[in-house]
Write a structure and sequence with these properties.
By secondary structure, this protein is an all-alpha fold. Helices cover 95% and strands 0% of the residues.
Length: 154
C-alpha cells in the first residue's frame, strides 16, 4: 500500500464520519427529540390524577400534532401568496396608465351618449307637443266611454 492509497482511505474515512455526523444531526436528532418529548408527555399523563387533567393534556398534544404539520405543509402556500401579492402590486402599476386612458375614453363616450340622448328627448318632446291637439281630440271620445262605463257600474 503506497501513500496515495492510504491518503485516499483516510479521506474516505473522514468523509464517512462527516456523512454519519450529518445524518445524526439531520435525521436522528429530531427523531430522538420528538421521541423524548413523547415519552415525557406519556410520563406526565400517567402521573396526573384527574381525568380532566389528562383530557386537557391529550387535547393540547393532539392540537400540536395536527396543527404543526399543517402549518409546515401550508408554508409554501404562504410564500406563494406573498409572491403573488408582490407581483399584483407590480402589475397594478403596469396597468394604471392603460386603465386611466380607458377611463378617459369612457367619460368621453358617456358625454357623447348624454348629448345623443338629450337630442332624442328633445325630439320626443317636440313630437308630443305636435300631437297634443290630436290627443285632445281623442280624449273627447274617452270621456263618453268613461261616463257610460260608470253608469253601467252604478
Amino acid at each position: 500500500m503506497n501513500a496515495d492509497e492510504r491518503l485516499r482511505e483516510q479521506q474516505g474515512a473522514q468523509l464517512d464520519r462527516a456523512t454519519r455526523g450529518r445524518f445524526r444531526r439531520i435525521a436522528l436528532f429530531p427523531f430522538v427529540l420528538v421521541l423524548g418529548i413523547g415519552f415525557a408527555y406519556l410520563g406526565f399523563a400517567l402521573s396526573l390524577q384527574s381525568p380532566v387533567q389528562v383530557s386537557v393534556l391529550s387535547n393540547s398534544v393532539l392540537t400540536l400534532l395536527v396543527l404543526c404539520p399543517a402549518a409546515v405543509c401550508l408554508f409554501p402556500l404562504v410564500i406563494l401568496s406573498m409572491v403573488l401579492v408582490a407581483l399584483m402590486s407590480r402589475w397594478q402599476r403596469a396597468t394604471a396608465s392603460p386603465l386611466r386612458r380607458l377611463e378617459a375614453w369612457t367619460a368621453a363616450l358617456e358625454g357623447s351618449a348624454d348629448k345623443w340622448l338629450g337630442r332624442i328627448d328633445e325630439r320626443v318632446l317636440e313630437a308630443a307637443v305636435a300631437f297634443a291637439p290630436i290627443r285632445q281630440l281623442l280624449r273627447t271620445f274617452d270621456t263618453l266611454a268613461d261616463e257610460t262605463h260608470d253608469e253601467d257600474l252604478g
